[in-house]
Amino acid sequence: MLIVRGIDMKRPRKIKDYCPSCDTHTNMDLSRGKNRPGSELRKGQRRFRRVTSGYGGFPWSKPSGAGKPVKRVYLKYTCSECGKTWQKKCIRSRKLEFTE
Ligand SMILES: [Zn+2]
Description:
Layout (H helix, E strand, L loop, with lengths): L8 E4 L1 E6 L4 E9 L10 H10 L18 E9 L5 E9 L2 E4 L1
This protein binds zinc ion.
């Protein structure tokens, strides 16, 4: 799979994909998901607390300049048969567009 950064992502609104609950391929509705809020129990946050504790300065240089122009896109897949929803991580892109 080719991953191109900084590109607009286009996805159809309805696709056919595997539903783990129905155990077959069903029609799925796509919508934009949200990334989960940070938690103190997540791996990255625990690592951050460990490396910034004790002696020594901040372990990596602070980023300078403007932020990244692209953001990670999360897609929500809703099964049309059972109504359950899954969220999947997608590529980093500037914007997300739904094509009919
Ligand atoms: Zn289903």
